[in-house]
Amino acid sequence: MGSKYTKRYTEEFKRDAIALVDSSGKTVTAVARELGISSESLRGWYRRAKADRGEDAPDELASAERDELR
Fold first, then answer.
1. Any residues with CB less than 8 A from the CB of 50 and at least 6 apart, and which?
2. Who's near 61: CB < 8 A, 6+ residues apart?
3. Angle, helices 11-24/28-35, rounded to nearest 10 degrees
4. pLDDT (tens digit, 9 = 90+) per residue, 53-62?
5. Quick check: 69 pLDDT over 80?
6. Which of 11, 16, 17, 23 is the most buried (most CB within 10 A)?
7. Whole-angstrom Cα distance, residue 45 to residue 40?
8. Rounded to an integer, what distance in angstroms lies between the CA atom of residue 57 and that of residue 46?
9. Is residue 16 a contact partner of residue 30, using CB atoms and an 8 Å limit?
10. 43, exposed or middle or buried, with CB in 10 Å at 0-12, 13-18, 19+?
11. Rounded CA gap, 59 and 47, in Å?
C-alpha cells in the first residue's frame, strides 16, 4: 500500500525535470529514477508539457483547455 501523504512538487521542479528528459536523451523512467520520483508522475508531467506545446498528443488536453473545463 502507498503512503497516505501525497508528495507535492513545485512547478519549477516539474519544468526542470521535463527539460532534463528533453535534453539528456534518457528515458522518462531513467530520469525519474535519478531524481528519486515516480516515473508515472514524470510521465504525466511530460505528456502535459508536450500537449501544451502542441506536440504529438492529439488526445491530451492542453493546460488551458483543462482549466476551462473545470
1. 56, 57, 60
2. 51, 69
3. 130
4. 887 656 666 6
5. no
6. 17
7. 9
8. 11
9. no
10. middle
11. 10
How many residues make up the chain in this entry?
70
Which DSSP letter does residue 62 get? Answer: P
Grid cell at residue 11: 512547478
2 vs 7: CA distance, rounded Å: 11
Give per-residue pLDDT as tens, 38-53.
Answer: 999 999 999 999 888 8
The CA radius of gyration of the chain, in Å to the nearest whole number, is 13
Strand, helix or coil for residue 63 = helix
What is the reported pTM?
0.70
- Judged by phi (left if over 0) then psi (alpha if -120 to 50, else beta), residue 25 lies in left
